[in-house]
Design a protein that fits this description.
alpha/beta, Nucleotidyltransferase, domain 5, 5-stranded mixed β-sheet, 10 helices, globular, binds zinc ion
Length: about 325
């Protein structure tokens, strides 16, 4: 009998679901708006509806993998908090879905599972020790060690965006200070440029956004930097130096054989990767730590494939 896996990518805006094979082939997919404002029960019903739409007419559903947009307890399948979905606080999504569909359900957080997807189907295929970073609005991470996702004692491991690189630094969304996310994420880059401009410094960024500082985004900063703008280049250089320093700490902590970086900021390409690689080669304590630092390969389906990778290889169900 054909074995298939169902996957759900739960986002603040959209719910995607798919029917997949173990090799990553997607046989069927569906998508609808999350409509988070209608509350948790309505969202869970829409997840169930999406799963019914991709349920196979024949064949056996082995398990269901779910990507959640926030921290999850992988041992209980409880979503602690989904910042973009009101009411998703301590929500026992795994048990609710298992009660409906009578197959195993495994839930993980989005950045962890993007790392898992890149390891099984993307840029880190063939590696057993992987550090994955998504540098986007925030910075998230996923660590694969010995071919398994590192989840930690309470499922909270891999929050690589909140490694401290500057203890005198700017406040971070997490409530602390000096996290790499507060510096090198898209939000961090924009904040720094805006602060310099508000303090009266001159930059082509101001012209690119027609004087509207609220319209500054990473593309505008990159565009100014490309034209030789000093302020834009200084912010990018400093921030990617900091990102490189964070990667040095990840290399020392985990000794991966590859580092994969995805997310919107990584679309700057070599403007980001080169300073990160240069910093790494200057600051590792031994050249043996140096490994390839490469762009992510998966784009729109990374969530669905991450959920599939999790469904195929659930973390051990033990906290100790
Ligand atoms: Zn933080």
């Amino acid at each position: 009998m054909d074995k298939v896996y169902l996957t759900v990518d739960l986002g603040g805006t959209r719910i995607r679901a798919a029917r997949c094979r173990a090799d990553g082939a997607i046989e069927a997919r569906t998508e609808q708006f999350t409509r988070a404002e209608e509350g948790a029960n309505a969202v869970v019903e829409r997840i169930a509806e999406s799963l019914r739409e991709v349920w196979p007419a024949k064949g056996k559903v082995m398990s269901i993998g779910v990507v959640a947009p926030g921290p999850v307890d992988p041992f209980t399948g409880v979503i602690f908090l989904a910042p973009n979905i009101p009411g998703f606080v301590n929500l026992p999504l795994r048990d609710w879905l298992q009660a409906i569909f009578k197959v195993p359900v495994i839930i993980g957080n989005d950045a962890n599972l993007a790392g898992l997807a890149e390891w099984r189907y993307g840029a880190a295929r063939g590696h057993s020790h992987v550090v994955y970073l998504t540098v986007s609005t925030g910075i998230g991470g996923g660590v694969i060690m010995g071919g398994h996702l590192l989840v930690g004692s309470r499922g909270l491991a891999g929050e690589l965006g909140h490694v401290k690189v500057d203890y005198h630094g700017s406040p971070c969304q997490c409530g602390s200070v000096g996290c790499i996310e507060a510096i090198a994420s898209g939000t961090g880059l924009v904040r720094q440029v805006r602060e310099h401009l508000t303090a009266g410094e001159k930059s082509q960024v101001t012209d690119i956004v027609s004087g509207n500082l609220d319209a500054i985004n990473v593309e505008a900063i990159a565009c100014a930097a490309e034209q030789g703008d000093t302020l834009a280049n200084t912010v990018l250089d400093d921030s990617f130096y900091a990102l490189g320093m964070a990667v040095v700490s990840f290399l020392h902590s985990y000794n991966p054989s590859i580092v994969v970086i995805g997310g919107g900021v990584s679309n700057l390409g070599e403007r980001m990767f080169k300073p990160v690689r240069d910093t790494v080669s200057r600051h590792v304590m031994d050249p043996a730590y140096v490994c390839p630092i490469v762009p992510a390969q998966l784009s729109g389906d990374v969530g669905l494939l991450g959920a599939l990778a999790l469904a195929l290889d659930p973390p051990p169900q033990s906290k100790n």
